Amino acid sequence: MTDKTKRVAFVTGGAQGIGKAICERLSNDGLKIAVADFNEAGAKEVANEINAHGGEAIAVKVDVSDRDNVFAAVAETVEKLGGFDVIVNNAGLGPQTPLESITYETYRKVFDVNVGGTLWGIQAAIKAFKDLGHGGKIINASSQAGQEGNPGLAVYGGTKFAIRGITQTAAKELAPLDITVNAYCPGIVKTPMMMDIAQKTADEAGKPFDWGMEQFSQNITLKRLSEPEDVAACVSYLASKDSDYMTGQALIIDGGMVFN
Hints:
Oligomer: single chain
CATH architecture of the largest domain: 3-Layer(aba) Sandwich
Order of helices and strands: EHEHEHEHEHEHHHE
Active site: 156
Strand content: 5-15%
GO molecular function, one term: diacetyl reductase ((S)-acetoin forming) (NAD+) activity
Shape: globular
Pfam family, one: adh_short_C2
CATH superfamily of the largest domain: NAD(P)-binding Rossmann-like Domain
Protein name: diacetyl reductase [(S)-acetoin forming]
CATH topology of the largest domain: Rossmann fold
Number of strands: 7
Distance between the termini: 47 Å
Largest sheet: 7 strands, parallel
Helix content: 40-55%
Binding site for NAD(+): 16-18, 37, 63-64, 90, 156, 160, 186-191
C-alpha cells in the first residue's frame, strides 16, 4: 500500500551515475521515487535496491526525447505512486564533439535528449501539478559546461547553456502556479559518461587514460573529481522545502571551477 503522505519524485536517467545517486538520496530524504530510464533493467535494479533498503520506488521506462513517452511515464508515476511533487530532468548525453567533427546526427540526438527531454519533462510536470491541484518543483540538469565553454564539447555545452536559459524562462512563467524551477551544474563527476569522455580525450591526444582524467581535474580548486553523491546533495536541497524561496537559479557544484 503506497503512503499518500510521502512526496513523489520522478528522476530521469535514474539507472546509473548521478541519476542513481539522486534516486538514492531523495529516497533517504523520505520521497517515493520513480526511477525513469531508457535502460529499463538498470532502472529496475535501482528501484529494487531502494525498496530493499526500506524506501518506495518503481522503475519506469522512458525515452526522454519522445514527448508523448515522457507524458505517459509521468502519468504512470502518478497512478502507481499516488502523486507527483518533484521532477528531476537529469537524463543526458555528453559526447566529445570537436567542432570540425560534428555531424547533423550527433547534433540532433544530443539536443533531442538533453534539451528536448528537459522541455518535455517540464511540460509533463506542469500537467501533473495542475491535475493534482498543487504546485511543485522542477529541477533541471545543466553543467559547469553550461556556465563556461569547454573545448571539444560544443554540442553538449550548447545544450547545457540552453537548459539554463529554459530554467530561467520557466521560473518566470510558472511562478504564478506555485512551481519553482531551478538547475544544478555539476563539474567533473566520476560517472560512466565521464570516464568515456576522458578516454576519448586521451585517445585523441595519443595519451593514457590517466592523462585524460588529469586534463579535467587539474583546474578544480578542491583538486578532486566529484562523486555522484556530491551532486545528489545539491539536488536534495533543491527538492526540499528549504529551497522554496529559490527559483530560476543554476547552482554550481563543481569543486571550484567556475566562480560567479
